[in-house]
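=== RUN LOG ===
request id: a7f3
mode: sequence -> structure
chains: 1
length: 355
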Amino acid sequence: MWRLKADTVWPAMHKGTVAFDDVPGNAEMADAYAILHATSHAEPMLRNNDREWDPAKRGAFNWLTNRRGLLTYWDEAVDSHKQFENIYTMGLRGVGDYPMLGADGPAAMRDILEDVINQQRAILERRIGRPAGQIPQVFTPYKEVLPAYDTGLRIPDDITLTWPDDNYGYIRRLSNPEERARSGGSGVYYHISYWGTPMSYLWLASAHPALMWEEMRKAYQYDARRIWVLNVGDIKPGEYLTQLFLDMAWDDDSYGDIAKVKAHLRKFAGETFGAQNAAAVADILWRYYDLAFSRKPEFMGFNGHYPTTAPRQTDYDLLNFGDENARRMDGYADLMDAAAALAAKLPKDRQGCVP
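=== RESULT ===
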């Protein structure tokens, strides 16, 4: 994170991951390295609901029926972290990244969110001992929260609006002129890995650099500059895309056209595989991103997880348009051949797994 000039961590929040606060010393270590601790759009007030909310002990995660339980839960977290630098996520969604319980439509959600945020800010002021306007806070209108925001949800002016993408790389909204005048400003929450409906993509880091460049360039031009957060998922395959995202975050003006992005990829390839191999590596990667852009590899199959799509043949046409299916298979076969041929020429420590 230091090498990339990143300064904020949103720890993973799934049941299969270890909660940030379950590891003794995590908060202290982050503080020692000047890394701010924050939490995702679904995890307000530095909590990890999947791991920390026990309904058998705390009751339902429902503001309308268990208001006191939620306030106590958030108060405990703020009290235990008040000595550190944090960014506090405001608002409320359900446990496990689901919609909040008890809200019947966007207007009802709006009313609950206004009440919740006012109470959360009262906790921050009481525990931290400063006016709420002096404490870093973000609000992320993710998924069903954006329609609630659009019904007229009143967000205190000093809270940063963190605009999310649609989980597939397209930012859903950016600030209008009135929102751009807010003291809290705005930022972006962007995915290169996603676990959820209707289709997940987790292991291959197949987001196209050109799409990321286009969307983040747009965000910068619309003054979404206060905070940029990247959902990286599995770090190893996402190394390059993380590098591009954070390099743009620090110097967006250096990436005025797509040629600068391709040059950035060649530079990364040269640093990793040697200058003599930079162009060949960058070409293979760009072709890989092109193929994935038309349809991600993870989306070629169908399964019963989200929610009940039975396995079936690909939608690519085998008869018309020049046999789309065969062209795609041939494209990946060419990539594999090119990668294997290049890898065989590289030093052993640069080869990885050569087929």
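=== NOTES ===
The two ends are 32 Å apart (CA to CA).
The CA atoms of residues 111 and 234 lie 37 Å apart.
=== END ===
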